[in-house]
User: What shape does this take?
Amino acid sequence: MASKNNRPFVSWTRLKKSFYYACKGIQHTWKHEQNFRIHVLVAAAVFISAQLLQIPIEQQAVLAVVIGAVIGLELINTAVEHLVDLIVQTYDERAKVIKDAAAGAVFVFALTAVATGAMIFIPHIIKLFF
Assistant: This one.
């Protein structure tokens, strides 16, 4: 059954374009946002460490979820900052609050990810020494 605008249910061309544009957004954020690069590099170190310590797959899945959320929030934060900069051409305290709150959301979840990682890694590290 075709939709009323006669577009197919899935347009592979449009889907490929959407993936392309998403990758361009990630590429831009990697190039211009220091915190994003730090999050990605720490994520790689965490996944490598999880393999070296033979962390169970269920715990690695939890790590993947919290890391994915931090990186996703960092991308959203970048989008919010650029949107505010586009709309507000001069200094405005309200714009600062919006940008600070978006950055704060990333920070809060990054701390949550660190706490989650600590709960997973510390027992495995302790086992190495005792």
